[in-house]
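Researcher: Structure prediction, please.
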Amino acid sequence: MRQISFDLDVLRTFTTGIDLGSYAKAADRLGRSTSAVSAQLKKLEEQAGAPIFRKAGRGLALTEAGQTLLGYARRLLDLNDETASAVRGVELEGEVKLGLQEDFGEAVLSDVLGRFMRAHPKVRVEVCVARSSELRERVTLGRIDLALLWEGGAPALNAQRVADLPLCWIGPAQDGLAWNGQAGGQHDAGSPLSLVLLDAPCMLRDIASNTLDAAGIAWRHAFTSASLSALWAASAAGLGLTVRTPVGLPASLRIIEPQAAGLPTLPQIGLSLYRAQTMAGPAVNRLEELLLQAVHETIRRVTAA
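Model: Predicted structure follows.
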């Protein structure tokens, strides 16, 4: 059987179009004409030996073969980029201080740091996992170089909006386990809703309470903690509902559909990447690049589930 060598340039066009939701946007991003992009995609289908797109209304969707190809394409491109970075940046040195929310600590940290340290072993990385308010203060004062944090309004001048993510009511995954002092999976209007929240000050805590107040739903604090892992444990045990995005959600918890549970719909929350207002070195720039790649991949995965 003849061995196929996929063209990495074509794979990059393929994944960029999926990420941007449009191959016209991909052509603009990559500096190619739409006809050149179409030719690349035709070549990719020929190499794959199977259709990778199907009609979906007025647009296109991936076939099963296309979904499989997409996963491998991302892995091949990641390895290619890591290799190029390692070869070019073997002498990269210095220090990078990174700040993250707990939500992203487990979801992206090990992958990002592993790739970065393999490529740049002479760079020392310090990581601070903290609340958004503390991270914003630290990066503003120049105590950390990069900070990934939640915020409700527009990002500051030294920041870029990475994504807007849905906030969700979250409760125990176990069927039949009570999450408001009762089983059945629906809020009892005759009793206050039990909430499991982080200690104040906390933006998500304020959003949850304000949303319930606006809907005229009584609530109470059933559990508070400074630790996200403690929050997950309390919610999984059925002490009450918590409010987070789908990022980092443990298997012991599930998203509660608001309409089915008699609850109001929660708003979205912004995720922004802040940079210290000093000139960043090449080590900071490279870690930022890897971090954004990992965050976008995590968001694609959790929002597609």
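Model: The mean pLDDT is 85.
Researcher: Thanks, that helps.
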